[in-house]
């Protein structure tokens, strides 16, 4: 387990993806109400930042070609992506969002373009 | 000292003046510097020619221009293996450190000298040709849409000027050895003019101290005049840690012939553009390439042939082998202008995947504006065919030796054709060294054909 | 076969074949389950436009194991709409089924709308096979920008037969995502560009599973100031072991002001993939034409014969009435071909 501080909870607006770097791993943070989700920021289809997209239907849409990655499972809703992006465990401690990038909770491989 | 991104016209002007460069040269640098300021670094999402290689990931431009200390002797060059030697030029850390002439070349009036001094001593030729192939002019085929080229146009530090006078048939090779010992950015420049009906052999060798983190942004312009013949070999034998950007562009005139071999095995990232503008009727060009990529290496090789004049011919053949987590990109571009009637062009690329994790991309392009031509290209990627292996094993050769024979044989076709003194031996030695270092037990062969034959 | 007979047979088998608007209304659950899973709304600007304003197109569902013998054509649909500007087609073939859908027709279609942006999504489930044939002959004012993509699951087969004759500009790259083991994808593409036309066509094959195979055959002909471009992608994802792909693109140039381009992209991320690509460009052979003239065949007919021979590997896959029409069109176009 390696939770590392990633962002202040107050700095995250609801349903607005934010890109942060945690231990050299690009992470896309999405806050929905009291929960914060963390996905690997690079789309599994092509090299593009998920944080550039919109949050739709419980997922973040890659703004390049429209595949939407589920915030919980990391799985894409449609082509052109065929593979999920890694999801990471998060927790909030004293108003700070912490992310553990040492293991992908959904077992998905790191996108490699 | 300023980093590459922040190179500015003012500092360039003062450097130029301090070095005593003629006004026309200083002005050209200024023009390039202004253009540089207006451009952005390549973006693989918008620049088609950078589509396969993410510039910002593979190249670090936050480097300072290396101080030209001229320290350190380069390792033995290719000429050591050439009986009778040749003309040896050495460029260390961006500065020309020595030129060792050869009696035969000297007697024939072959000029090999520092580019900066040549700008004054051989002003006519240098002024006429320097930057002509890189700068976009009216109807020209400049390459300065790319900021990495404008950078060199503006700020090249050390360079060499070579002139082989008309009708001189030079048998001894001229070798330019670029060696890197210092970290930072290096901007070497080469300008070679081969006069009409002359014949010459030119080598560009690239080596470095292993582990030195450096970016080398190189431009070589080669003018091959009517009826001339040029054999060119560029060897990327870098140590680890080098990022190499190179434009090596030849303008080939009427009935001139160029054979060019690009041999790429070293460096962390190499992005090479061997380009050929066939501007005279009957010009002929044979671009050959050998590449071997291992763990962590990324080679982006873009031979570009432009058929501008009629009845020219080009035949590109690039072969590579990959192992470990490596990446190669072959981008062969062929453009045939509407006036290039009677063009014959062919292009072939083969990538051999030896082990897991390797990725070989290929995008051979054809842009044809003239119908009265023949054009074709072929590309194949795959593993060693199991049948070749079993054939050798059936003759009592053990697996490891058989694999070595297959990979070496795969490349010797090209080396034999190029037949360049000193280069063939050196290249073969590098190939054998790389195979010897490979984990042959990890090499996988493709038994699909074997299985299908068994089922037939 | 009579129109009513075809419809009766289809209903008996449980096949759904409607225009897309009715498909959404009458089979909403089925429709929503699959809609935009192949081409999401933001896949590209033209898909986005289509997703917002689509109307018309076909909705086809073939039940498990049903093989439809007769090629389905838009003509047979109930509630047939006129050629829409933003057609949206969705075809779902359940496991083990087969259908051949034919879009368009060889007769020139005149349209006052200058932009046609259609989207076609096809889902070929386990062991099923779908063939989608298009002969496009839009009038010369039309910009025809189409997104066509299929998903082929385990042991499924998807075949695109794509004929581009009309329009001012066509940009179309039928694609197959091979997501199931053993899936097969094929694209046969014929493009003909005359004065002022640009056919920018090709194919995309994405191998996302093991033991998948793809085949692309592209034949293009350019005449006058016409321009044909082949643009293709073969992508082998990591994990798609034992993938095989072969691409052949041939371009024929009929006269001097024509232009042809070939832009193939191969991205191979799996070590044991076997990938081949070959392209040729040639012009009409004077010798061949002369040979035929010697045997009493006039120039125009000789040219037409050579062109027909050039595209034969593809035209023979077309339904009879289409290949007859295509050959006739070629004969017309070739009149006065040799200037």
List the helices and strands and how they pair.
The complex is a heterotrimer of chains A (113), B (456) and C (339).
Chain A: E1 3-8, E2 18-22, E3 25-32, E4 35-40, E5 55-56, E6 59-61, E7 68-70, E8 87-93, E9 96-100
Antiparallel strand pairs in A: 1-9, 2-3, 3-4, 4-8, 5-6, 6-7, 8-9
Chain B: H1 9-18, H2 23-38, H3 55-58, E1 87-92, E2 95-100, H4 103-107, E3 111-114, H5 115-121, H6 123-129, H7 147-155, E4 159-164, E5 174-180, E6 184-186, E7 189-194, E8 199-208, E9 214-224, E10 229-236, E11 242-252, E12 257-264, E13 269-278, E14 284-293, E15 298-301, E16 304-307, E17 313-322, E18 327-330, E19 333-336, E20 344-353, E21 359-362, E22 365-368, E23 374-382, E24 384-385, H8 386-393, H9 399-418, H10 423-437, E25 445-446, H11 448-455
Parallel strand pairs in B: 1-5, 4-7, 5-8, 6-9, 7-9, 8-10, 9-11, 10-12, 11-13, 12-14, 13-15, 13-16, 14-17, 15-18, 16-19, 17-20, 18-21, 19-22, 20-23, 24-25
Antiparallel strand pairs in B: 1-2, 3-4
Chain C: H1 3-13, E1 16-19, H2 20-26, H3 28-34, H4 45-53, E2 58-62, E3 72-73, E4 88-93, E5 98-103, E6 115-116, E7 119-124, E8 129-136, E9 143-152, E10 157-164, E11 169-172, E12 175-178, E13 184-193, E14 198-207, E15 213-222, E16 227-236, E17 244-253, E18 259-268, E19 274-283, H5 286-294, H6 299-315, H7 320-334
Parallel strand pairs in C: 2-4, 3-5, 4-7, 5-8, 6-9, 7-9, 8-10, 9-11, 9-12, 10-13, 11-14, 12-14, 13-15, 14-16, 15-17, 16-18, 17-19
Antiparallel strand pairs in C: 1-2
Helix pairs in contact in C: 2-3, 5-6, 6-7
Describe the structure.
The complex is a heterotrimer of chains A (about 110), B (about 450) and C (about 350). With about 110 residues, chain A is mainly beta. Chain A contains no helices and 9 strands. Chain A has a single domain, classed as Rieske Iron-sulfur Protein, CATH 2.102.10. Chain A starts with a strand and ends in a 13-residue tail after the last strand. Chain B starts with 8 loop residues before the first helix and ends with a helix. By secondary structure, chain C is α/β, with parallel strands linked by helices. Chain C has 2 domains: about 5-285, no CATH class; about 285-340, no CATH class. Chain C has helices at about 5-15, 20-25, 30-35, 45-55, 285-295, 300-315, 320-335; strands at about 15-20, 60, 70-75, 90-95, 100-105, 115, 120-125, 130-135, 145-150, 155-165, 170, 175-180, 185-195, 200-205, 215-220, 225-235, 245-255, 260-270, 275-285. In chain C, strands 1, 2, 4, 6, 7, 9, 11, 12, 14, 16 and 18 form an 11-stranded mixed sheet that branches. The interface of B and C includes residues 338, 357 and 364 of B.
């Amino acid at each position: 387990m390696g939770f590392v501080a990633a962002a202040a909870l107050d700095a995250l607006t609801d349903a607005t993806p934010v890109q942060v770097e945690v231990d050299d791993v690009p992470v896309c943070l999405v806050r929905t109400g009291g929960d914060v989700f963390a996905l690997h920021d690079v789309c599994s289809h092509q090299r593009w930042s998920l944080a550039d997209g919109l949050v739709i239907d419980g997922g973040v849409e890659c703004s390049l070609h429209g595949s939407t990655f589920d915030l919980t499972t990391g799985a894409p809703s449609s082509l052109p992506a065929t593979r999920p992006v890694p999801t990471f465990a998060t927790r909030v401690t004293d108003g700070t969002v912490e992310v553990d990038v040492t293991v992908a909770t959904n077992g998905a491989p790191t996108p490699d373009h | 000292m300023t980093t590459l991104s922040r190179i500015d016209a003012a500092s360039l002007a003062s450097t130029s003046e301090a070095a005593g460069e003629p006004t026309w040269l200083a002005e050209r640098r200024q023009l390039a510097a202004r253009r540089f300021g207006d451009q952005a670094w390549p973006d693989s999402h918008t620049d088609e020619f950078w589509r396969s290689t993410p510039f910002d990931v593979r190249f670090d431009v936050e480097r300072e221009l290396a101080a030209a200390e001229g320290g350190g002797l380069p390792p033995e060059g290719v000429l050591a293996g050439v009986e009778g030697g040749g003309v040896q030029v050495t460029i260390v850390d961006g500065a020309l450190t020595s030129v060792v002439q050869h009696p035969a070349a000297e007697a024939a009036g072959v000029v090999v000298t520092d580019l900066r001094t040549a700008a004054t001593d051989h002003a006519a030729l240098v002024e006429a040709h320097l930057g002509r192939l890189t700068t976009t002019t009216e109807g020209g085929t400049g390459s300065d849409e790319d900021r990495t080229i404008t950078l060199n146009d503006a700020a090249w530090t050390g360079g060499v000027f070579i002139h082989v006078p008309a009708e001189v048939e030079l048998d001894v090779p001229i070798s330019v050895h670029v060696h890197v010992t210092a970290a930072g950015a290096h901007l070497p420049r080469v300008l070679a003019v081969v006069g009409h009906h002359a014949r010459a052999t030119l080598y560009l060798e690239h080596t470095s101290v292993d582990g030195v983190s450096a970016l080398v942004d190189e431009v070589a312009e080669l003018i091959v005049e009517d009826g001339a013949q040029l054999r060119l070999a560029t060897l990327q034998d870098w140590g680890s840690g080098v990022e190499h950007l190179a434009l090596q562009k030849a303008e080939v005139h009427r009935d001139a012939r160029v054979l060019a071999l690009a041999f790429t095995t070293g460096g962390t990232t190499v992005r090479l553009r061997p380009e050929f503008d066939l501007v005279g009727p009957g010009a002929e060009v044979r671009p050959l390439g050998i590449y071997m990529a291992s763990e962590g290496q990324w080679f982006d090789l873009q031979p570009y042939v432009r058929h501008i004049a009629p009845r020219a011919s080009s035949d590109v053949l690039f072969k590579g082998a990959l192992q470990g987590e490596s990446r190669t990109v072959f981008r062969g571009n062929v453009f045939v202008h509407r006036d290039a009637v009677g063009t014959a062009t062919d292009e072939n690329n083969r990538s051999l995947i030896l082990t897991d994790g390797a990725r070989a991309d290929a995008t051979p392009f054809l842009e044809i504006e003239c119908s009265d031509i023949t054009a074709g290209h072929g590309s194949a990627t795959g593993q060693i065919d199991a049948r070749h292996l079993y054939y050798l094993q059936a003759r009592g050769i053990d697996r490891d030796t058989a694999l070595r024979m297959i990979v070496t044989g795969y490349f010797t076709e090209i080396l034999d054709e190029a037949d360049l003194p000193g280069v063939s031996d050196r290249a073969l030695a590098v190939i054998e060294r790389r195979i010897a270092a490979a984990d042959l037990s990890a090499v996988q062969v493709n038994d699909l054909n074997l299985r299908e034959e068994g089922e037939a | 076969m009579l129109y009513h007979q075809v419809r009766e047979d289809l209903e008996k088998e449980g096949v759904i074949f409607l225009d897309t608007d009715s498909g959404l209304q009458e089979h909403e659950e089925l429709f929503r389950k699959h809609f935009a899973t192949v081409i999401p709304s933001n896949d590209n600007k033209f898909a986005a436009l289509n997703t917002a304003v689509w109307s018309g197109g076909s909705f086809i569902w073939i039940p498990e194991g049903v093989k439809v013998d007769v090629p389905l054509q838009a003509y047979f649909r109930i509630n047939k709409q006129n050629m829409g500007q933003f057609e949206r087609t969705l075809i779902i073939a359940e496991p083990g089924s087969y259908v051949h859908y034919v879009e368009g027709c060889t007769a020139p279609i005149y349209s006052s709308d200058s932009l046609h942006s259609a989207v076609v999504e096809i889902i070929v489930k386990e062991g099923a096979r779908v063939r989608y044939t298009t002969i496009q002959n839009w009038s010369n004012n039309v910009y025809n920008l189409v997104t066509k993509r299929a998903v082929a699951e385990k042991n499924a087969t998807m075949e695109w037969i794509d004929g581009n004759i009309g329009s001012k500009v066509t940009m179309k790259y039928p694609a197959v995502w091979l997501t199931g083991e053993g899936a097969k994808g094929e694209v046969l593409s014929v493009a003909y560009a005359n004065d002022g036309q640009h056919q920018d066509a090709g194919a995309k094959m994405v191998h996302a599973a093991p033991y998948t195979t793809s085949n692309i055959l592209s034949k293009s002909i350019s005449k006058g100031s016409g321009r044909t471009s082949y643009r293709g992608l073969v992508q082998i994802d990591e994990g798609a072991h034992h993938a095989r792909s072969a691409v052949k693109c041939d371009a024929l140039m009929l006269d001097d002001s024509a232009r042809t381009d070939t832009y193939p992209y191969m991205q191979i991320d799996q070590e044991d993939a076997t990938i081949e690509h070959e392209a040729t460009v040639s012009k009409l052979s004077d010798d061949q034409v002369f040979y035929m003239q010697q045997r009493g065949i006039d120039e125009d007919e000789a040219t037409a014969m050579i062109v027909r021979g050039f595209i034969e590997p593809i035209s023979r896959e077309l339904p009879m009435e289409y290949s007859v029409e295509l050959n006739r069109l070629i004969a017309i176009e070739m009149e006065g071909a040799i200037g």
